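User: Before I run my own analysis I want an independent prediction to cross-check against. Here's the chain; please return only the structure tokens and, at the end, one sentence I can use as a sanity check.
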Amino acid sequence: MAKIETQTTLRRLRNRYRLVVMNDDTYEEVVTFKLSRLSVYIGLSVVFVLLVSFTVALLVLTPLKFYIPGYGSRQSRTELQVLKIRTDSLEQSIRLKDQYLDNIRKVMTGNTSIPRDTNAISVPKAEISND
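Assistant: Structure tokens:
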């Protein structure tokens, strides 16, 4: 049975059809095409492959590739990483300075809500050696 289906499918693909473009006013044939389903599939596939290859070539071979998110030169990526590290360190230093200034402000105004360490420190006595 599989042979019969294959033969009918191939026959259907190879059947010839006529496509006629006519002028509606004069009923004159402008263009006539003799087509088969197989030729239409092949033609559409070729057009699709050409469009995809043209688009890829356009993006790869021209400066348009720099508009793709995540794409850039190696130099710009390393510069971006350096700037990110520098920004993070600057944010951390600003945060620490703000905390330091807040603590000084609290001490100067007398607001001592800062917990103090009131534990007694036990200092061991130094042993005196008799030599």
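Sanity check: The chain has a mean pLDDT of 86.
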